[in-house]
Amino acid sequence: MSRRTAKKQQEERGKLLAELGTLSRLLHGSWVERYSVCARENCKCRSGERHGPRRYLVVNEEGRQRQKYVANAQVQVALEGLAQYRRLREIVERITQINLTVMKEAEL
After folding, report:
1. pLDDT tens digits for 10-60?
2. How is the chain split into domains, by residue range?
3. Of 1, 51, 79, 91, whose CA is between 20 and 30 Å from 106?
4. Distance between CA 90 and CA 104 in Å, rounded?
5. Does 1 score more than 90 pLDDT?
6. Torsion of the alpha carbons at 35, 82, 86 and 10, rounded to the nearest 10
7. Beta partners for 66?
8. What SS3 state is found at 57?
9. What is the distance between the alpha carbons of residues 37 and 90, in angstroms, rounded to a whole number?
10. Across the chain, how many H-helices and E-strands are there?
11. What pLDDT does 87 receive?
C-alpha cells in the first residue's frame, strides 16, 4: 500500500470515528407496526378497516425480546434512532475493513 493510500485510509478512519460521537440517539432494535380488531361487534374494524397502525420497538432486555410501544409523537425519534444504529453498523464494518488492510500491509 502506498503512503498516499495509507494516509487516505487513516483520514477516513478518523472521520468515521468522529462520526460515532454524533450517534447519540441510536436504538438497537426492530420496528413493528400492527393493525388490530377490537371486541366491539359493530366496529368498522370488523368489516376490514382495522385500528392502527400501532408502532412498537422490539428490543432485547435481559436476554428476552420486549416490545416497547412508541407513541405517535415519538415515531420520528424512534425511526431516527434505528437509522443511527444502522449507520453505526456500517461504520464498524468500514473501520474493520480498513484495520484489516492495515494489518495485512504490516505483515508484508
Report:
1. 899 999 999 999 999 999 999 999 999 999 989 999 888 999 999 999 999
2. 3-107
3. 91
4. 21
5. no
6. 170
7. 59
8. strand
9. 39
10. 2, 3
11. 98
Residue with cell 478518523: 14
Alpha carbon distance 81, 88 (integer Å)? 10
Q: What is the largest CA-CA distance in the chain?
A: 76
Q: What is the pLDDT of residue 29?
A: 96
Nine cell digits for residue 93: 464494518
Per-residue pLDDT, 108: 58
Single-letter amino acid, residue 95: I
**Dist. CA 52–CA 45, nearest whole Å:** 10
pTM of the model: 0.83
